[in-house]
Write a structure and sequence with these properties.
The complex is a heterodimer.
Chain A lengths: L1 H21 L8 H32 L9 H24 L4 H22 L6 H4 L5 H14 L2 H24 L5 E4 L2 E4 H8 L7 H4 L13 H29 L5 E2 L3
Antiparallel strand pairs in A: 1-2
Helix pairs in contact in A: 2-3, 2-4, 3-4, 3-7, 3-10, 4-6, 6-7, 7-10
Chain B lengths: L1 H12 L13 H28 L6 H35 L6 H37 L10 H28 L1 H4 L5 E2 H26 L12 H8 L3 H25 L9
The chains are: A mainly alpha, B mainly alpha.
Chain lengths: ~260, ~270
């Protein structure tokens, strides 16, 4: 009985201490530090996510005809989850915010669209209908939701990665679907995306890469995308842990650590 | 209470704005971020205007006029600017006061955050804004030189400025924030990773050009010889440790000031 009362008293004291910290008035620390951090960090976070996407899976993200059923659902979710996973760890550790993946997704969304509109459309004149980037904002929200519910990075890596891949596909399929409609082109049945790929010249991409979806997987007909999605989800688990390693060893571990000698 | 004491200190120091005012300590952040953004957007507009008209044939006189001259201007400008800024940081750091008031230390941390913010903006232009122009250009136009218009701006202006900012920010911390990054503490791992990111990215340019000399017809953006740009870029995660280290010191300053206000001797808080 006495032990229970003591535990309640300790919990209450801790609650009061936390409440005191929450309402503590600092002399210098104010809202401006928060604003500057969240705004300026957005640049490096968006850039890190975008460059990871561009150079690991960029070709599948640049063009509608590359957004296929065979490789896009495998390579993209793996490459796209790396930096959101890192930010998820950092924000959960620092503030217990289950927001890292969503924050990264929004930062990358802005960076991607600036890049596509200003460079791909403005500089080289490809229409945005051909070079629109995939979104990971819905997938990021779900990944954060899994962390919020499980409070476990291990479970989030397994369940969250599955959810991430599935939501990535479904949320982007809505944008992609109109480009998968059949059309006749020079006596052949092609998709609208294929026609875009033929009509808008990419003179430096080799011919054989233009037929993106190939191999015997196509003989699985309607099953192709589901096979790819499941394999993509398993690869994404590895991508999640690459992001965790980046956050744990490169962002958090160095805090307050110094080398005395070179 | 706090307002009065800050106003008194501000009057005593002769500064018009306080350490944490937007146009006080945060001015560095605002001006540096806007300045770099303006510079890079101006260069991008120049690229949009002259890449197609004068940047296709590297052997043409137009290319030499519009692009090789820009390359030389960038290398000289960034080189002189960088050496000048670093030299000023080191030289003035030798004479600047190392025993400082809390207000002054907070102002320096705010300026430090401004430099970190500006570094973040430069990293964005390095790793997202210009790589998009690079991809769009090289998947469309034939390469006949390693110094293509997007490369001249991205690799020889944005990338070197990344090194300027990461090492410059370290020199600022080393000379102005002795309790966090003073020489006696050793070399911080946070800066080691961040500086390594900017330096290895620059070095990777050599491998990139070598790779393109081998596979010149295949502009496959996710090609393996591009991957080191990503893995080296991940080292920039050390930037989060900079924010954390300086934020911990800010909390330490708040605690010291609080104890001083109570009349107790200030306890020096480790950063």
């Amino acid at each position: 009985m006495a032990a229970t009362a003591q535990a309640i008293s300790a919990a209450e004291a801790e609650r009061q201490e936390l409440r005191g910290l929450l309402h503590k008035q600092y002399r210098w620390l104010d809202y401006k530090f928060d604003i500057v951090f969240w705004v300026t960090a957005a640049f490096v976070v968006g850039a890190a996510a975008d460059i990871t996407k561009l150079l690991f899976a960029g070709d599948w993200d640049f063009w509608t005809d590359w957004k296929d059923r065979q490789w896009w659902p495998i390579i993209s979710p793996f490459a796209f989850i790396i930096i959101p996973s890192a930010l998820q760890y950092i924000q959960w550790l620092a503030w217990r915010f289950p927001t890292g993946a969503t924050y990264t997704a929004v930062c990358m969304f802005l960076c991607s669209w600036v890049g596509r509109a200003f460079q791909w459309q403005g500089f080289v004149s490809y229409p945005l209908a051909f070079v629109w980037p995939a979104t990971i904002i819905p997938a990021g929200i779900f990944l954060d939701w899994v962390l919020l519910k499980t409070k476990s990075f291990v479970l989030t890596s397994i369940l969250g990665s599955m959810v991430w891949t599935l939501v990535f596909w479904t949320s982007n399929y809505m944008t992609l679907a109109p480009y998968l409609q059949p059309t006749q082109f020079m006596g052949h049945i092609l998709t609208v995306a294929d026609v875009q790929g033929i009509q808008y010249l990419r003179s430096q991409t080799p011919e054989y890469l233009r037929l993106v979806e190939n191999g015997t997987l196509r003989s699985f007909l309607e099953e192709t995308q589901y096979v790819s999605l499941v394999f993509g989800a398993t690869l994404t688990v590895a991508g999640y842990w690459i992001g965790q390693a980046i956050a744990r060893w490169l962002a958090i571990w160095p805090i307050g650590r110094f080398m005395k000698q070179f | 209470m706090a307002t009065t004491s800050v106003a008194v200190q501000r009057a005593a120091s002769g500064r018009k704005y306080g350490a944490i005012d937007w146009w006080g300590g945060w001015r560095t952040c605002i001006l540096a971020c806007l300045g770099f953004s303006a510079l890079f957007i101006a260069l991008a507009l120049y690229m949009h205007a002259f890449a197609w008209t004068a940047g296709i044939d590297a052997s043409s006189p137009e290319f030499a006029l519009y692009w090789r001259s820009l390359l030389i201007l960038e290398l000289v400008g960034v080189g002189v600017g960088t050496i000048g800024w670093w030299a000023w940081l080191v030289r003035s750091g030798r004479t600047i006061a190392q025993t400082i008031t809390h207000e002054e230390e907070v102002r320096r941390i705010v300026v430090f955050w401004g430099l970190i913010g500006a570094t973040s903006v430069v990293l964005y232009f390095m790793a997202s804004f210009f790589p998009n122009s690079d991809g769009a250009w090289h998947q469309t136009a034939v390469r006949d030189t390693a110094f293509t218009p997007p490369h001249i701006i991205m690799f020889y202006c944005a990338f070197p400025l990344g090194i300027t900012m990461t090492i410059g920010t370290y020199l600022y911390g080393r000379t102005r924030l002795p309790k966090i990054y003073g020489a006696s503490n050793g070399f911080p791992w946070s800066f080691f990773f961040l500086i390594a990111a900017s330096v290895t990215e620059m070095m990777q340019v050599a491998m990139n050009e070598w790779g393109h000399s081998l596979w010149i017809t295949e502009e496959f953006f996710a090609a393996p010889f591009h991957w080191p740009f990503v893995t080296y870029g991940w080292l920039a995660s050390g930037i989060f440790a900079l924010w954390a280290e300086s934020a911990l010191r800010l909390l330490g300053i708040e605690k010291e000031a609080e104890e001083e206000a109570k009349g107790a001797p200030a306890v020096q808080t480790a950063a």
